[in-house]
């Protein structure tokens, strides 16, 4: 049979291939010559390589000696299991103690966690920047932290402490020119990324806390529940890897953690919705000079009757069920905590892998650093804040009062008369008798 010539484009001749090779070499030489000219003109901006960056020393084992001796006969796998379990129960116990101590202590806890997470991330960044002999890196990092905290929490003081601010002339000046002062401080992007992760998210956590402690406890406990149950299911039943960034995470742990978290969130929402201490917005009362959580619970935290779908009516043998509307919202919060929340951990895992480290720090034996425990919490805080502003939040009395206090006396008097007339028409106030 005769051999049919192929299409010239599909099979180039040796001559054409040789010419194209030479042409590519000439272009490479020409581009290299241009790059050499640029380097000669501007100098070598950065001649360092990854090998010049010092390696991070291995983390110290901070496990208490009493635990080391008690668990010395176990394998490393079971030893880690017991260390994580004991420290987890200890942290949960301390967390309940702080809840008992009130909202102000919870705010201090959030701020402390923010500072520690910032310190752990900055310490990793210091490894890179220190190798380039950049001065004042740590000092500037903490200065930026102070500036951003001043900006965010200055807004919070203006919103929730309006009455107190009105009594202090120095605070009035700071609040009036707050944003300008913040901008001036911030004039003097590793640090900025860290601030975005830690300060912004912890600010949202405290904003959620002001809406009611339940908006803080249910989301944060759902993430903790998901972390614990996913670890337990993965430890005993895990066989299928979930994602390469976190080799220890498995599909079995992911699915088991999801169902456990939704059930836990639903039950926790039912229990906490019964108490004003958890459901009332946190407000600062100047007359008692402290935070108070007393109110008439909104409809969100009052029992309602709901008709069951047909398939549940047959199973439960009842037409309706009574539950708090917040329990329905808890399903959304728990679902996010178990399905989307873990991706905050995946991002942190990729971040640590890029720097070839196992944990952000070794603050908590068996767990790593504070940032290792709160990587998912920060993503959850953003979701809760958006959820509240989108579906829950109504008018804020503190902000309305703040705006009223800065009006002229005549304007305040007109608003008072209008509000009084409105309350009389609704029957809330009795009309005064004219003599």
From TrEMBL:
One example GO MF annotation = phosphatidate cytidylyltransferase activity
Give the subcellular location.
Membrane
Tree of life domain: Eukaryota
Endoplasmic reticulum keyword on record: no
- GO biological process entries: CDP-diacylglycerol biosynthetic process
For this protein, the parts annotated as crossing the membrane are 81-101, 141-162, 183-206, 212-238, 250-272, 326-348
| Reaction catalyzed | 1,2-di-(9Z-octadecenoyl)-sn-glycero-3-phosphate + CTP + H(+) = 1,2-di-(9Z-octadecenoyl)-sn-glycero-3-cytidine-5'-diphosphate + diphosphate; 1,2-di-(5Z,8Z,11Z,14Z)-eicosatetraenoyl-sn-glycero-3-phosphate + CTP + H(+) = 1,2-di-(5Z,8Z,11Z,14Z-eicosatetraenoyl)-sn-glycero-3-cytidine-5'-diphosphate + diphosphate; a 1,2-diacyl-sn-glycero-3-phosphate + CTP + H(+) = a CDP-1,2-diacyl-sn-glycerol + diphosphate; 1-octadecanoyl-2-(4Z,7Z,10Z,13Z,16Z,19Z-docosahexaenoyl)-sn-glycero-3-phosphate + CTP + H(+) = 1-octadecanoyl-2-(4Z,7Z,10Z,13Z,16Z,19Z-docosahexaenoyl)-sn-glycero-3-cytidine-5'-diphosphate + diphosphate
Q: What membrane topology does the UniProt entry give?
A: Multi-pass membrane protein
**Family matches, as Pfam families:** CTP_transf_1
- So, what pathway does this thing act in? Phospholipid metabolism; CDP-diacylglycerol biosynthesis; CDP-diacylglycerol from sn-glycerol 3-phosphate: step 3/3; Lipid metabolism
Give the EC number(s) listed in the UniProt record: 2.7.7.41
Alphabetized UniProt keyword annotations:
Lipid biosynthesis, Lipid metabolism, Membrane, Nucleotidyltransferase, Phospholipid biosynthesis, Phospholipid metabolism, Transferase, Transmembrane, Transmembrane helix
A single GO cellular-component term on record = endoplasmic reticulum membrane
Instruction: Tell me its family.
Output: Belongs to the CDS family.
Spell out the protein name for this chain. Answer: Phosphatidate cytidylyltransferase
* Annotated organism of origin: Muntiacus reevesi
């Amino acid at each position: 049979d005769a051999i049919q010539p192929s299409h010239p484009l599909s099979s180039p001749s040796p001559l054409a291939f040789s010419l194209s090779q030479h042409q590519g070499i000439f272009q490479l030489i020409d581009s290299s010559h241009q790059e050499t000219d640029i380097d000669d003109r501007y100098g070598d901006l950065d001649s360092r390589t990854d090998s010049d960056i010092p390696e991070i020393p291995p983390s110290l084992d901070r496990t208490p000696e009493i635990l080391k001796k008690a668990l010395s006969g176990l394998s490393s796998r079971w030893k880690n299991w017991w260390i994580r379990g004991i420290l987890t129960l200890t942290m949960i116990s301390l967390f309940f103690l702080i809840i008992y101590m009130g909202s102000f202590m919870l705010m201090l806890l959030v701020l402390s966690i923010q500072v520690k997470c910032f310190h752990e991330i900055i310490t990793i960044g210091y490894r890179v920047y220190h190798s380039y002999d950049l001065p004042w890196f740590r000092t500037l990092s903490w200065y930026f932290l102070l500036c951003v905290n001043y900006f965010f929490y200055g807004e919070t003081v203006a919103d929730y402490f309006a009455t107190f601010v009105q009594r202090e002339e120095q605070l009035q000046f700071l609040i009036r020119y707050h944003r300008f002062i913040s901008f001036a401080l911030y004039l003097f992007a590793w640090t900025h990324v860290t601030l975005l992760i830690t300060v912004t998210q912890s600010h949202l956590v405290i904003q959620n806390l002001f809406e009611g402690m339940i908006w803080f406890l249910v989301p944060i406990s759902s993430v903790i529940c998901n972390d614990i149950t996913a670890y337990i299911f993965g430890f005993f039943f895990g066989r299928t890897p979930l994602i390469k960034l976190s080799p220890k995470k498995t599909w079995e742990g992911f699915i088991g953690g999801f169902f456990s978290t939704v059930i836990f969130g639903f039950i926790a929402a039912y229990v906490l919705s019964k108490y004003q201490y958890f459901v009332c917005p946190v407000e600062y009362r100047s007359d008692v000079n402290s935070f108070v959580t007393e109110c008439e619970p909104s409809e969100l935290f009052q029992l309602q009757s709901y008709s069951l779908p047909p398939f549940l009516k047959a199973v439960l043998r009842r037409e309706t069920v009574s539950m708090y509307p917040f329990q329905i919202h808890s399903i959304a919060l728990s679902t996010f905590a178990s399905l989307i929340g873990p991706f905050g951990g995946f991002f942190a895992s990729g971040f640590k892998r890029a720097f070839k480290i196992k944990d952000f720090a070794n603050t908590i034996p068996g767990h790593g650093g504070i940032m290792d425990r709160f990587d998912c919490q920060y993503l959850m805080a953003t979701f809760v804040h958006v959820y509240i502003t989108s579906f829950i939040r109504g008018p804020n009395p503190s902000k309305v009062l703040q705006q009223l206090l800065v009006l002229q006396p005549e304007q305040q008097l007109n608003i008072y008369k209008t509000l009084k007339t409105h309350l009389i028409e609704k029957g809330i106030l009795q009309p005064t008798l004219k003599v």
